[in-house]
Amino acid sequence: MIDTDMQNKKIHQGRNIKRFREMLGIKQEALAFEMGDDWNQKKISLLEQKETVESDILAQVAKILKVPAEAIENFDEEQAVNIISNTFTSNDTSTLNAINVQPTFNPLDKMVELYERMLEQQREMIEKLEKLIEKK
Questions:
Q1: Secondary element (H or E) of residue 63
Q2: Rounded CA gap, 1 and 117, in Å?
Q3: CA 100, CA 52: separation in Å to the nearest integer?
Q4: Which CA distances in Å does 61 have to 34, 43, 109?
């Protein structure tokens, strides 16, 4: 059972933007470039320090990172770690047997899909940077 402190805990949306950006291997400068002309690395850094991010900016970042905005809004690392810790650190294997998780997808396929998406994003970034260099 989740205690009420965890339910009332504020999700730090800026930190979640940083987590997703880093997981995808995207630099702050690259994200700033994608966000538009009035964005720079320092502004992205400040955005990642904000506990709550404006919904229009959150939606724009989510679109660039190709993740659902809800993932950024709701991801709670501490809660995820607690769930994993409580589930898998027990010496009693009956906990694992009782769960009997039967995913409807192959986790390896999802990892490959994520990796391919990351490669595609990297290709797109390189193309955009090459076009930017050509303009100068």
A1: helix 55-65
A2: 35
A3: 37
A4: 9, 13, 25
Q: Model confidence over 68-125: pLDDT tens digits?
A: 888 888 887 776 666 556 655 555 554 445 555 555 667 777 788 888 888 888 899 8
Model pTM greater than 0.70? no
E-strand ranges in 4-113 read none
Contact 23, 72 (CB under 8 A): no
What lies within 8 Å, CB to CB, of 13 at 6+ separation is 50, 51, 52, 53, 58, 72, 73
| C-alpha–C-alpha distance, residues 26 and 118, integer Å | 9
Tokens 């880093």 belong to 22
Distance, in Å, from the CA atom of 41 to the CA atom of 32, rounded to the nearest integer, reads: 6
**How far is it, in rounded angstroms, from Cα 25 to Cα 18?**
10
Q: Which of 80, 100, 11 is nearest to 50 (CA)?
A: 11
